[in-house]
Design brief:
By secondary structure, this protein is of the alpha/beta class. About 40% of the residues lie in helices and about 20% in strands. It contains 18 helices and 22 strands. Bound molecules: NADP nicotinamide-adenine-dinucleotide phosphate and magnesium ion (MG).
């Protein structure tokens, strides 16, 4: 009996896993030109569950050509209200296939089922519907000036908002379906066409989504999905001279490569990159809410989360109480396969990722931080690591400076420093993605939030994400914003037209 049987996987998910996974190019499912395959694993069992095509430069070429053709074809002439309806239909398809998509996401990525369901419902479906409703609201302005010496009333300038063109979307493995939707929804609402390159470790829900795209009536070539390796398919897409924009979510290291790859044709680039976000807890914070909030901020998705609040700065008067509370929560997580409903803490994505996180845990100990709990690998099978907490951390330690992307919480104390001094410590990082402030003093909350150099700060909660709230990084956490109106804006370009009469 394999794990697939023991876990009571639905027939639908099993059939999908066992089917042949192809590239989706120009509305057709195709083999890769290399004939090579990439194995896909369940990170909770280390079992191979599928294999996908390893897309090549040639496959990327075909996909970009299809997207270029589609940009000026039927898609360009679909009225914006109908474009919105198509996105709503795609959303309906996700709702109709909600259960199998959630299962596949757990099997591929390892996240707990409840989290997969929550994210697909409240981010996936909502994002598509949110951007669907934007499609007919995209419009320009009229500008009342008289250029070139024209008399008042003798000229009119108006602007139009046009789709930016062919978009290459390169996404990571930590929330695979949501990232695919986060790229596609605003791009399609804006009228762009897309080539999507999912992460090699988690390609399955994007491919399933491809079948839903086919059903939803989106014209062929508008969305193309090429699975493959970052250094081949990803690199070919980033360098392609006929791609107008790359939207990338992933590591800062690869983000920098994307920027250099974009130089040839100066394609537009938006980057959502890493983070090392601060969580600042004042002595008047409501610990009943703060303790679970701090635990979730770090351990959500086993810490493989760009917004994770991994550096806690807590007032010395409540340090011990906070540490004890968060430790008790960390120890209460049920570690195991995400498809078993009682488990709420899954594996890391891969053996490499587990090795990387264990290396940081060992460094934390050798650099003199105090290990409060966790620090060990768990189970014989699957890439599990216990939720881990360090205290007595200083800003110089590697665990405090570098993005670990695993379940490791670093706690530092402060005493009666000014808000500016606390901010200086919190901002001493190359990243600037998220952060939170926990206090019952409204004035401290707002002042502290203003001093944190991040694209997103939350007060008495952490990482408040919503389709309508702009999200993105300062410093080396990225370029541009996703979600909300600003997210849509990055898929549009403005054309100004002046008429003299
Ligand atoms: P990654 O290694 O940067 O990979 C991201 C994507 O880029 C994958 O599809 C990858 O393909 C591809 N890629 C790799 N090398 C490439 C190259 N030379 N040219 C073009 N594409 C290339 O990141 P990851 O390890 O998957 O994800 C973790 C990182 O993502 C963390 O740093 C995390 O903070 C960040 N992240 C940021 C956000 C945000 O919104 N700011 C959200 C989630 C995650 P392969 O799959 O084949 O490697
Ligand atoms: Mg996998």
């Amino acid at each position: 009996m394999t794990n697939k049987d023991k876990l009571k996987i639905s027939e639908e998910a099993k059939n999908f896993l066992e089917s042949e996974h192809l590239l989706f190019i120009d509305g057709e499912w195709k083999q890769s030109s290399s004939g090579e395959k990439i194995p896909v694993f369940d990170p909770a069992t280390e079992e191979k569950i599928a294999e996908v095509q390893s897309g090549t430069t040639k496959d990327i070429d075909l996909a970009v050509n299809a997207a270029r053709e589609a940009l000026s074809g039927e898609w360009a002439n679909i009225p914006s209200h109908d474009r919105a309806q198509i996105l709503h239909r795609l959303s309906d398809e996700i709702e109709a296939n909600f259960s199998v998509l959630s299962e596949l996401e757990v099997l591929d990525n390892g996240m707990p089922l409840e989290l997969a369901q929550y994210s697909i419902a409240s981010h996936g479906v909502t994002l598509l519907r949110y951007y669907a409703s934007w499609a007919p609201k995209i419009h320009g302005k009229t500008i009342p000036v008289s250029p070139g010496g024209a008399m008042n009333g003798e000229s009119l300038t108006y602007t139009k908002r046009e789709p930016i063109g062919v978009v290459g979307a390169i996404i990571p493995w930590n929330s695979p379906l949501i990232f695919a939707i986060l790229k596609l929804a605003p791009a399609l609402a804006a009228g762009c066409t897309v080539v999507l390159k999912p992460a090699e470790l988690t390609p399955l829900t994007a491919l399933y989504f491809g079948h839903l795209i086919e059903k939803s009536g989106i014209p062929k070539g508008v969305v193309n999905i090429v699975t493959g390796l970052g250094e081949t398919a990803g690199d070919a897409l980033a360098k392609h001279n006929d791609v107008d924009k790359i939207t990338f979510t992933g590591s800062t290291e690869v983000g920098k490569k994307i920027v250099s790859s974009s130089i040839n044709n100066l394609k537009k680039v938006t980057l959502e990159l890493g983070g090392k976000s601060p969580v600042i807890v004042f002595d008047d914070a409501d610990l009943e809410k703060t303790i679970p909030g701090v635990a979730r901020a770090c351990f959500f998705l086993q810490g493989q989360n760009c917004m994770a609040g991994t550096r806690v700065f807590v007032h010395e008067d409540i340090h011990d109480e906070l540490v004890a509370g968060v430790k008790s929560m960390a120890e209460s997580f049920q570690i195991g396969h995400g498809l078993i409903q009682t488990n709420d803490f899954g594996p890391l994505i891969s053996g490499d990722q587990r090795k990387r996180v264990m290396k940081y845990i060992k460094q934390g100990i050798s650099e003199g931080a105090t290990l409060v709990c966790g620090g060990n690998e768990v189970n014989d099978r699957g890439y599990f690591i216990e939720p881990t907490i360090f205290t007595d951390v200083t800003g110089e330690m590697s665990i405090a400076k570098e993005e670990i992307f695993g379940p490791v919480l670093c706690i530092e104390k402060f005493s009666n420093e000014s808000l500016e001094e606390i901010a200086k410590r919190a901002n001493k990082t190359t990243y600037g993605l998220s952060g939170s402030v926990w206090t019952n003093d409204i004035s401290t909350g707002h002042k502290m939030a203003a001093l944190i150099d991040s694209g997103q700060v939350s007060i008495n909660c952490h990482a408040a994400v919503d389709s309508a709230i702009p999200f993105g990084g300062n410093k080396q956490s990225g370029w541009g914003r996703e979600f909300g109106e600003e997210g849509l804006d990055s898929y549009l370009k403005t054309k100004a037209t002046t008429v003299m009469y």
